[in-house]
Write a structure and sequence with these properties.
Blueprint: H1 3-11, H2 13-25, H3 29-37, H4 41-48, H5 59-68, H6 72-80, H7 99-120, H8 128-153
């Protein structure tokens, strides 16, 4: 058991789980990452598997993979653990969208969070699927709000 692998995967388990899930959902998955980094697929799978304590990615590979898969969820987990949040460099909305439309997107996303959250909590608890749904909806709400705030600060 590699000490640095165990430390990374136990102290930052939520980050590693989020990143592993994002890699698996990414269009090319581990195969694309292998092609871009020149590493064998199985080695990558072992390094990024949050349950494999024998190996972990070196820092340069970790950063490359975060960029390749645009790991927003994993980065949100990391920044949230520091009491911060990601903010886009520029708003996702184009200039041809009106202020009213941009604001309506924020309201719509807030409504989605309320709807999904209310339905998920009807039994006063959240299962893993409901948690994932809420994380997705909250992320979309945050993205819309950040884009609108960037637009306002213009």
């Amino acid at each position: 058991m590699a000490v640095h692998a165990e430390r990374l995967k136990t102290h930052h388990v939520a980050f590693m789980r989020a990143l592993h899930a994002e890699i698996r959902r990414h269009g090319g998955g581990y195969s694309e990452i292998a092609a871009e980094t020149g590493r064998p697929v199985q080695v990558l799978m072992n390094m990024f598997n949050p349950n494999n304590m024998d190996t972990a990615p070196p820092a340069d590979l970790l950063l490359d993979v975060l960029e390749i898969v645009q790991a927003r969820r994993a980065m949100n987990v990391l920044t949230s653990s520091m009491g911060m949040m990601l903010a886009p460099i520029s708003g996702e909305q184009s200039d041809d969208v009106s202020d009213a439309t941009a604001f309506q997107r924020v309201v719509h996303e807030v409504g989605d969070v309320l709807s999904v959250g209310t339905k998920a909590l009807a039994d006063n608890q959240l299962n893993s699927s409901e948690r994932q749904d809420l994380v997705r909806e909250i992320s979309e709400m945050i993205d819309a709000a950040q884009a609108f705030m960037t637009r306002l600060q213009g």
